[in-house]
Design goal:
Layout (H helix, E strand, L loop, with lengths): L9 H11 L9 H12 L6 H23 L4 E3 L9 H8 L25 E2 H4 L15 H18 L7 H7 L13 H11 L28 E6 L5 H10 L3 E5 L3 H4 L1 E6 L13 E11 L2 E7 L11 E5 L12 E5 L2
Parallel strand pairs: 5-8
Antiparallel strand pairs: 1-5, 2-6, 3-9, 4-6, 6-7, 7-8
Helix pairs in contact: 6-7, 6-8
The protein binds 2-acetamido-2-deoxy-beta-D-glucopyranose (NAG) (3 copies).
Length: 335
């Protein structure tokens, strides 16, 4: 193991492993150079063995990005914090391995008939969306979708922006069919907060990114849920209404390999399904719009601000893309 990447001597150090492996990457190749600056940028360090494997994966991702971007897609791929991982590795660390009862969510949302504005962006209406957070190597996306939706709901009602505890949901919300780093659903997490009588703040119950024992203290709860709006299965128009009229909306969808390398533009895929039992990632819709006749959602992710468009992505709207209308919901706060 070596601590900091020695850019200057990395060439000499590399000679051994690369020469032995008949690797396609030659010493000092642009790929190697790019990989080394990426490692510096993301403060990555590897063992000798791992370095080789990571460099190969990085180069293969780079090829995928190039091929994709050369075609006429509505979104671009790019190098990001996950560029040294295969999708299989990424999936194990960040996504749900088990389906999360998405289609079992009973709806109670009654949709009106519109019309609604052609575009909405809660980020631009005022201070209604909290900064992008980072879930780390834990399948806890559902907790970030949950806190994001509730933080917005409270800000919209009171003008006060809180930062709520994801770790409390990871540690304490099991009785509502949630499973910490193994997954959960925002609708079930809102129900937990409602019946638990509150959720603590980020500072009093900070994020650790791993499963732990419940440390909830009732006296320190700062946010409360009065009711939960569950949107009807596959009713994407109801999601539009809810985002236009009420609140950012939590939803889940199926992440496939082309999404891992997303950089910007309107994500649209033929490799994902539209079925509720395939969704594996929860996020937060904070708005919608349309570009060159293509409608999209504006979505807040929980993979840090250096992924995608400052932590956000756009995804095609109106086609139940990747099952995104499978189990959308939002909380009604008690204030
Ligand atoms: C690329 O996509 C745009 C927008 O969908 C379309 O107008 C254009 O004709 C396409 N170009 C090619 C070469 O397919
Ligand atoms: C789905 O719901 C059933 C019945 O409530 C429960 O037993 C099961 O654990 C749930 N599955 C998940 C992944 O939460
Ligand atoms: C909303 O969904 C949650 C989680 O699936 C469920 O516990 C709750 O009963 C649903 N609400 C209504 C009113 O059906």
């Amino acid at each position: 193991m070596w601590a900091v990447l020695p850019l200057l001597c990395a060439g000499a150090w590399l000679l051994g492993p690369l020469a032995r492996g008949a690797a396609s990457l030659s010493l000092g190749s642009p790929e190697t150079f790019r990989f080394k600056s990426w490692m510096q940028q993301h403060q990555k360090t590897y063992s000798t063995e791992e370095y080789r494997h990571r460099l190969q994966t990085f180069a293969s991702n780079q090829r995928k990005i190039k091929e994709h971007n050369a075609r006429n897609h509505t979104f671009k791929m790019g190098i990001n914090p996950f560029s040294d991982m295969t999708f299989a590795e990424f999936k194990r660390r960040f996504l749900w391995s088990e389906p999360q009862n998405c289609s079992a969510t009973k709806s109670n949302y009654l949709r009106g008939t519109g019309p609604y504005p052609t575009s909405v962006d809660w980020r631009k209406k005022g201070r209604f969306v909290s900064p992008v957070k980072n879930q780390g190597g834990c399948g806890s996306c559902w907790t970030f979708s949950t806190t994001g939706a509730l933080e917005s709901a409270i800000a919209i009602k009171t003008g006060k922006m809180l930062s709520l505890s994801e770790q409390q949901l990871v540690d304490c919300a099991q009785n509502f069919n949630n499973h910490g780093c193994q997954g959960g659903l925002p609708s079930q997490a809102f129900e937990y907060i409602r019946y638990n009588k509150g959720i603590m703040g980020e500072d009093s119950y900070p994020y650790e990114g791993k499963d732990g024992n419940c440390k909830f203290q009732p006296g320190k709860a700062i946010a409360f849920v009065k009711d939960v709006a569950n949107i009807t299965l596959n009713d994407e128009a109801a999601m539009v209404e809810a985002v236009a009229l009420y609140n950012p909306v939590s939803f889940a969808f199926e992440v496939t390999s082309d999404f891992m390398l997303y950089r910007k533009g309107i994500y649209s895929s033929t490799s994902c399904h539209k079925t509720p039992d395939k969704v594996n990632h929860a996020v937060l819709a904070v708005g919608y719009g349309e570009q060159n006749g293509k409608p999209y959602w504006i979505v807040k992710n929980s993979w840090g601000p250096s992924w995608g468009m400052n932590g956000y992505f756009l995804i095609e709207r109106g086609k139940n893309m990747c099952g995104l209308a499978a189990c959308a919901s939002y909380p009604i706060p008690q204030v």
